[in-house]
Amino acid sequence: MQEQTAEKPYFCEICGSAFSTSYQLKRHIQTHTGEKPYSCEVCGTAFSKNSDLKIHTRIHTGEKPYSCEVCESAFSTSYQLKRHIRTHTGEKPYSCKVCNSTFSLNSNFKRHMLTHTGEKPYSCLVCGSCFTTSSHLKTHFRTHTGEKPYFCDVCGSAFSTNSHLKIHYLRTHTGEKPYSCEVCGSAFSIQSDFKTHMQTHSGEKPCTCEVCGSEFSTNSNLNVHMRTHTGEKPYSCEVCGSSFTTNSDLKRHMRRHTGEKPYQCEICSSAFSTNWELKKHTLSHTGEKPYTCEICSSKFSTNWGLKKHMMLHSGEKSYSCAVCSSVFATNTKLKTHMQTHASQKYSCEICGSEHATNSELKCHLQKSHGEKPYLCEVCKSTFSTNTKLKIHIRTHTGEKPFACEVCGSAFSTNSELKRHARTHTGEKPFSCKVCGYAFSNNSDLKRHLRKHTCEVCGSTFLNNWELKNHSRSHTEEKAYSCHVCSSAFSTDLELKKHMPAHTGEKPYSCEICSSPFATSSLLKRHMRTHTGEKPHSCDICSAAFAQNSDLKKHLRTHTGEKPYSCEVCGLAYSTNSQLKRHIRSHTGEYYSSFLTLLKV
What we know:
Helix content: 40-55%
Number of strands: 40
Number of helices: 23
CATH class of the domain at 464-599: Alpha Beta
CATH superfamily of the domain at 464-599: Classic Zinc Finger
Radius of gyration: 45 Å
Largest sheet: 2 strands, antiparallel
CATH architecture of the domain at 464-599: 2-Layer Sandwich
CATH topology of the domain at 464-599: Double Stranded RNA Binding Domain
Shape: elongated
């Protein structure tokens, strides 16, 4: 309590403060009573002092009687002018005794001191979040009320803070970018963005997380990061109740409900809900892949794609499951894994199968049950994905957004453009494993493989002629007939082999012993009696044979197979010659008579 003196004879009975005039005492008492006798005739705002009302009135009149002699800027109060002059003089009269930082304004100095004390005296009554200043609390409280009192005069957009309105106006309507980087030439509309950008060159990250030691270039980025430790999600969706750590995340989420897609591609007019999706899409037109791996030189269209790729080299798995300690390379994989711990499962109503996530259930319905929820309004065709529907719609609109840079031909899909581009480059990345022939398109390779592959048994053949001959073994078709005896054969080659039986012609002679043969294959077999060659080997015991038929007979000694059965008693034998000998035990006939029986 102050003592009453001759210099200050007026004494406050509530707090004991002393004043030199009765006017000062009256003004002071209003701080206790809350009385505000001076009202604005324009907006009705009330003030405790007439001088405060006069200053306020200048907001409506636009009067700014205090001018800067240096830059001629005008201000509505002398205090604002004094503060402004310090931007010219560089004067910072307020100094921190802890870290020696200096400030031009007392309010900034007071706010700074709270960073040392950690004090956050202003608390939100809704969510309990604490703030260092009442202005920060007011701004935060608007996230709960949805209040946006600052309106853009040009487009009518509303904002929760005046600073957001200013940023919007500069970025959207003026296009003015007065802050230019001397290093790379980038220009910025607001100083804070410019300062943040400069830190990308200096590498400076002055804001450190006390929990994990992560460093950040701005305090706002640090604040957002801290929510990963506290779990705080102050931004809630009014539609579904989902919560988010940042307002920007909430805005992106809301577009799922509204269907808003404000980012449009200038080439094909495709629309996207986020700027990042638009940038990624634009690369599909340009083919640009600006991010290169320093280890293997692989290129990527996005920085995130490069980061994921780098984990293959480093083996880094920085995302850990809090339940079972499993580690993952990406946050997406961790989230998917966490669903295995969640009690909630998504069940298929058709087959009853359970899935960890709703997206997995949707994929299951489309793949396993043929669900096609996307309907074309023109022809009523249905599709399993929205992407397939978009591509289909182009068949109605005639839209062809993908153009060839060489010849100007246009295509409705990027894959069609890629296939077309190979006609210019000559690239043929699809090779046949049977004959080695290469193709520019996978569809051409598939068509080609039909020439090699039997549709009945899957056997492959080097050429179409061999495949046709083989196919007749399944159909029993015998298109080649002998004009002498009417015997039929499935291949032309078999007919040619048969004809020497009628003509007696043996055009193939052995150079060693002059023995004649009707076919070249018979000559080859004979030659092995001179060379001793036995090219057919048993995989089980390594026994070798001159003829493949001998090898087949030998293999039956290992497998026990007996394909030749007696029709009289049912006994089975591994070779036809053994069956013939056995049949004589039933007939008792001479061998010549048995031969006659066999011909019948």
